[in-house]
Amino acid sequence: MVKSILAMIQEIGVPLDELTLKVLAILEKGGTVPENAIAEKLKLKINATRKYLYQLSNRGLAVYTKQRDPKKKWWYLYFWSLDTGKIKALYLGHLLKKLQQKKVELEAEQQFAFECQSCQRKYKYEDALETDFSCPACGSILIEARPTKPILKLKREIEAIEQDLEVLTAQREKEKEKPKPQVKPKAKPKAKQKLKKKRK
Predict the structure, then answer these.
(1) Which of 76, 135, 144, 195 could cross-link 116 (Cys pair, CB 3.0–4.6 Å)?
(2) Can you list the domains of the chain with their CATH numbers?
(3) pLDDT digits over 155-179, tens only?
(4) Which pTM was predicted?
């Protein structure tokens, strides 16, 4: 199961302070949220709240839209939301990098394909072949090594990452298929007719 947006960001390792993480949690829960509502929830002033919102925006994690305030014509209202598409793309890249790292670790662990039952020493296939599959240390016969705890752990981790990747990729493909909301074009204002001055 794919993690929450907050968990994804924390796993990627994006450095965010405690209050910025709280703002992020509000946005994840609320979708598109007016900044004054965020300020109220955090019990902060608008200017202080914007500081945390801009931290998210500067890292490409949040976006905003603005509308004129119907009560104050010279004032704008800002509505914030998480850029989930970008966050998921970052997390996808993080998972692919992590998967590659785990596979390299597994390959290194699996190099030692044979072991000695007597002295518990392990050997690579090439080394075991050179000694006719007998232990150079004690002369006992070498047998195929059983998967160790680190190998079993790495296999479980790789499987979990691959499942996350599968779900996340399917989720992103589904989001791409969603029809984008069509914005109705604004009606052009009617041309004002010039009033003919009446001759007296």
Answers:
(1) 135
(2) 5-82 (1.10.10.10), 87-176 (no CATH)
(3) 999 999 999 999 888 887 777 776 5
(4) 0.71
